[in-house]
Amino acid sequence: MNSDQTVHGACDLDPAGLPVHVAIIMDGNGRWAKKRLLNRVKGHEQGSETVRTIVRTSREIGIRYLTLYAFSTENWERPKSEVSALMTLLNRFLINERKEMQDNDIRLFAIGQLDRLPEPVITTLKETMKLTRDNKGMQLTLSLSYGSRSEIVDMVRAIAREACQGKISTELINENLVSSHLNTCNMPDPDLLIRTSGEMRISNFLLWQIAYSEIFITKTLWPDFSKEEYLQILKEYQSRDRRFGKIKT
Ligand code: IPE
Ligand code: IPE
Ligand code: MG
Is residue 28 lining ligand 1, measured as CB closer than 6 Å? Predict the structure, then answer.
């Protein structure tokens, strides 16, 4: 049986036309909680349930790369109590999901300024990445303490250093070289970018990499984002005409 037939509602997706790489800006946890007069942390907790659902669905239908924006460089400016609750939640998520990742051949990867994360999270992250590094079914990348501008600055620094050391000549600097010096060097650019909660912005996420991604913004808040809506977006993605600046002849 094809994997697409095993997922309820996914049978009308064309397996050959699936995005290879889906990236998601998971936004709206705080508003979800506020609407219910709950603490923002409750929104993040419910949001982590959505992460489980979307990871599972992605793997089931055959997405090869799923990249989730979980914590931005700017999010460090939030109140200490919220940051600390998010870090605790992240640590718990990584430990709890290890079995699921192993059972489903999912490799965990992380991008961002990882050295800024609290020590226990770094340890759990490293252990989980090591445990799952040979898994080939899908790469799940968490963007943690991630900011695209700082990633670009690091890339420029690295290339400038190599040029100064005479390892590369400036004529060799091209788009491939730039891509290979970004945190995302081991994955293709996202085909599809989804943002929940209706905000019409990128918030410092994968600026270089989304040059030709198809963008979908839904008003649904991340904790309410469902498998059904995800499949609907994938269906709509398949009806988009990706021209890459060309015209049909
Ligand atoms: C997204 O939800 C999660 C993180 C940014 C960590 P928010 O916490 O930004 O929720 P809103 O945007 O305030 O509703
Ligand atoms: C973007 O959401 C970052 C993550 C989803 C991790 P934010 O809530 O931080 O972004 P803004 O403040 O709406 O731009
Ligand atoms: Mg937000």
Answer: yes
